[in-house]
Specification:
Shape: globular
Helix content: 40-55%
Radius of gyration: 25 Å
Distance between the termini: 83 Å
């Protein structure tokens, strides 16, 4: 009889894939996702089949996941979620540890999106929309009333594209990345064109331009639009991103998760903020002076759009980067001067810096785009970030984004209403 190889002394402290999955409350494939992200280490042990995992390491990860599911940050009671995608600190922000402004300056939107999804750079990355997906999305969009907002069009296009994808329920990383690379160009292709020479190929920013502006696009303007898309691709756990992660936590497919994000950005404190700044800029340009316009806004009890950001005590780095590019576009000079007038006028009483919404408004007003264009740019750009967060959430314990309600109603039992 052949002697069996000795089992190492520390093997008893190691868990099988099944045991690790049970301890973490996830599927076995999610255990390997933790390994690929560097959150767990694995190795093969002589005498045991398959990979094994250090029990202490697995237990530590389980405790971290449990703390996250409690939803307490320890400072103010705000929901706190561990993420490896975006970090914001000291008036800077980073995508997977790399300065996001530097990424946007050196790479296209598509390349930045790929970096956000995979942590790998794909030079020359392009996104192509399947013809059948575009056809379904366009038919759905064309059925909407003429006054439908761009976000209405994008939501409907997303749902329509989902119906054309029989593999949408495949939540594997490869499948979701395939969805991302086709959904984003499908959304752009489904938008109603402003120009007759609608483009459905080439860089995404070039295709989007023909949906937003009737003006000819020069290289500087296209570069500014592409950079705006790359700068806006993600911004940590913004309200729409949190909605996306809740949907992904319930294992909604990627289209449904994106739909959740699109449902949130219409608020004036989120994606629609640039439209308010756009209209403010037009008023200042019309009157030639920011002072009376600012006075009217304050008299009406409205906050001045395009100024300040809760995450940046100083200057919004996205605004600074976009303003630098806009200064190279001659036709943007009047809007830039108007934006400066708004900041300087308001600074007499509230020293707030311009944020990315004001910079985006300068781009849209100077390039002949409607007031809703900034919201469209924001939504298209952020779709890539939502996909990144969806992928990350699929690797976590299902339904962990389920806080408990703090009931404050009448004490039961109450009598039945008559």
């Amino acid at each position: 009889m052949r002697d069996q190889e000795p089992v190492p002394r520390d093997a008893a402290r190691r868990l099988s894939t099944k045991e690790a999955a049970e301890l973490l409350g996830v599927k076995p494939e999610t255990v390997y996702a933790y390994v690929s992200r560097g959150q767990l280490s694995s190795r093969r042990v002589t005498g045991r089949r398959g990979s094994t995992f250090d029990a202490g390491e697995v237990e530590a990860l389980a405790r971290r996941n449990k703390r996250e599911s409690a939803g307490s940050s320890g400072s103010g009671g705000e929901l706190s979620v561990r993420t490896r995608i975006t970090l914001i600190e000291s008036d800077r922000y980073y995508f997977r540890g790399v300065n996001a402004v530097d990424l946007a300056a050196r790479h296209t939107y598509e390349e930045v999106a790929e970096w956000l999804w995979t942590g790998r750079m794909r030079p020359g990355a392009t996104f192509t929309a399947p013809a059948d997906s575009v056809a379904v999305a366009r038919r759905a969009v064309e059925a909407l009333p003429e006054h439908a907002a761009p976000t209405d069009l994008l939501r409907v296009a997303t749902i329509a594209a989902a119906t054309a994808d029989p593999l949408r329920f495949d939540l594997s990383e490869e499948a979701v990345l395939g969805t991302a690379r086709t959904l984003i160009p499908t959304l752009v292709a489904a938008l109603l064109p402003v120009r007759h020479d609608r483009r459905d190929e080439g860089p995404l920013a070039h295709r989007l331009w023909t949906r937003l502006s009737g003006q000819d696009a020069d290289e500087a303007s296209l570069r500014a639009l592409d950079t705006a898309l790359a700068l806006l691709v993600d911004h940590d756990l913004a309200a729409s991103t949190l909605a996306v992660r809740v949907a992904a936590s319930a294992r909604a497919h990627a289209y449904a998760a994106v739909s959740a994000g699109l449902g949130v950005i219409e608020g004036p404190l989120h994606g629609a903020a640039s439209g308010l700044a756009h209209r403010l800029l037009l008023d200042v340009l019309d009157q030639g002076d920011a002072a009376p316009v600012i006075a009217d806004e304050l008299r009406a009890g409205r906050r001045i759009p395009g100024l300040g950001h809760r995450l940046y005590p100083g200057e919004d780095p996205r605004a600074r980067a976009l303003f630098t590019l806009l200064e190279r576009i001659p036709r943007a000079e009047p809007a830039l001067l108007a934006a400066r007038d708004i900041v300087e006028t308001t600074a007499r009483h509230a020293p707030l810096h311009a944020n990315v919404d004001l910079a985006l408004a300068v781009l849209t007003t100077s390039c002949g785009m409607p007031s809703t264009a900034g919201e469209t740019v924001f939504a298209v750009a952020r779709t890539a970030g939502w996909i990144a967060h969806t992928l990350e959430e699929y690797g976590e314990r299902p339904l962990r984004m389920r806080p408990s309600g703090l009931y404050a109603g009448p004490k039961p039992p109450q009598p039945l209403p008559e």
